Amino acid sequence: QVQLVESGGGEVQSGGSLRLSCAASGNGNIFSSSGLGWYRQTPGNERDLVARISSGGTAYYADSVRGRFTISRDNAKSAIYLQMNSLKPEDTAVYYCNRYQSPRFSWGQGTRVTVSS
Question: CB atoms < 10 A from the CB of 111, how many?
Answer without folding.
Answer: 21
